[in-house]
């Protein structure tokens, strides 16, 4: 097992896989991730010539094609960029890369398909164990950690009440995340806490929020918008009932879903909620003294500037 000190060194410079969403609706997540990396002196090397991980759609056509698409990203990182750690901020990308790793280690048919398609595409096939996929939360927790953030932020988020929302793909299915649930220092799949830990270190008050891993209905937004809106409304209302002023997110699909369905819930069902939605990287960026525009906060649908000014975060 890699200890904390080894991880801190290993993760200081990583292959960065933004994925499709961070180049579109989740651009604020990408901008803020890059901004805090620069501020903290952490190296992000974008994976060269990366492709979509297969998102949520490809598995409905052929799950092994999705495995190949994710495996190709890892192959690019290992064979072209010569990195052995890939950091994926998006829960969907993170999930799919981890699932590809698991499938290639346990399913001979997946290995066969990936090798066949890789040969046809003219690149080396990725082999299980050649790289480690981590989330942005793992990356910051290991490299900077709570002590580092306390020192750098001086409690800048004090007085801000936050509900931390992890979404469902960060912890499910559990078998593709063997590094979780390993006792002290590891992330929990039943009660995730890495985001809570980091934001608390920056001074925030984390409220007790029962729906931190509930599904936002992101996969059903187009096919059944009303169901997605109701699922999001449950999350928004639970956050407000817990006393939160902000919901912190770490997934572009969840983030966009919360924002869009917050608007839709008011228009469609007459249910208004006032809780703001910000990426955890945007909140940490504010705590580190980075301006809102440099963090892409102006690109969010949720207008949090009045709250940011009220809390003297700029």
Describe the secondary structure blueprint for this structure.
Blueprint (H helix, E strand, L loop, with lengths): L3 H7 L2 E4 L10 H14 L2 E4 L16 H18 L4 E3 L3 H16 L1 H14 L10 E3 L1 H8 L1 H9 L7 E5 L28 H8 L3 E2 L18 H17 L4 E4 L2 H18 L6 E4 H8 L17 H6 L4
Parallel strand pairs: 1-2, 1-3, 3-4, 5-6, 5-7, 7-8
Helix pairs in contact: 2-11, 3-4, 3-5, 4-5, 6-8, 7-8, 9-10
Task: Describe the structure in your own words.
It is a single chain. The chain is an alpha/beta fold and 314 residues long. It has two domains: 4-135, Up-down Bundle (Glutathione S-transferase Yfyf (Class Pi), Chain A, domain 2), CATH 1.20.1050; 145-310, Rossmann fold (3-Layer(aba) Sandwich). The chain has helices at 4-10, 27-40, 63-80, 91-106, 108-121, 136-143, 145-153, 194-201, 225-241, 252-269, 280-287, 305-310; strands spanning 13-16, 43-46, 85-87, 132-134, 161-165, 205-206, 246-249, 276-279. Helix 4 crosses helix 5 (108-121). The protein starts with a helix and ends with a helix. The model has no long low-confidence stretch (mean pLDDT 95).
């Amino acid at each position: 097992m890699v200890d904390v000190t080894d991880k801190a060194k290993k993760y200081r410079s990583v292959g960065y896989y933004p994925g499709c969403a961070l180049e579109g609706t989740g651009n604020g997540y990408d901008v803020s991730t890059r901004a805090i990396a620069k501020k903290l002196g952490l190296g992000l090397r974008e994976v060269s010539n990366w492709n979509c991980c297969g998102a949520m759609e490809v598995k409905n056509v052929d799950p092994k094609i999705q495995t190949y698409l994710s495996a190709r990203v890892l192959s690019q990182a290992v064979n072209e960029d010569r990195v052995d750690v890939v950091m994926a901020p998006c829960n969907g990308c993170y999930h799919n890369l981890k699932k590809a790793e698991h499938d290639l280690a346990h399913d001979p048919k997946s290995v066969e398909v990936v090798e066949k398609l890789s040969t046809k595409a003219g690149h080396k096939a990725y082999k299980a164990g050649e790289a480690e996929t981590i989330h942005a939360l793992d990356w910051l927790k290991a490299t900077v950690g709570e002590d580092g953030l306390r020192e750098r932020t001086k409690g800048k988020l004090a007085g801000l009440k936050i509900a931390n929302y992890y979404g469902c793909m960060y912890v499910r299915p559990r078998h593709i995340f063997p590094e979780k649930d390993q006792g002290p220092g590891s992330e929990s799949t039943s009660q995730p806490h890495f985001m809570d830990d980091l934001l608390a270190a920056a001074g925030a008050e984390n409220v007790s929020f029962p729906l931190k891993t509930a599904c936002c209905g992101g996969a059903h937004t187009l096919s059944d918008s009303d169901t997605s809106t109701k699922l999001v409304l449950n999350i928004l209302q639970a956050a407000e009932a817990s006393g939160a002023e902000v919901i912190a997110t770490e997934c572009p699909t969840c983030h966009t879903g919360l924002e869009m369905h917050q608007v839709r819930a008011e228009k469609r069902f007459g249910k208004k909620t006032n809780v703001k939605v910000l990426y955890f990287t945007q909140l940490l960026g504010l705590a580190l003294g980075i301006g809102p525009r440099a963090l892409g906060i102006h690109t969010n649908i949720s207008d949090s500037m009045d709250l940011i000014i009220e809390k003297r975060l700029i």
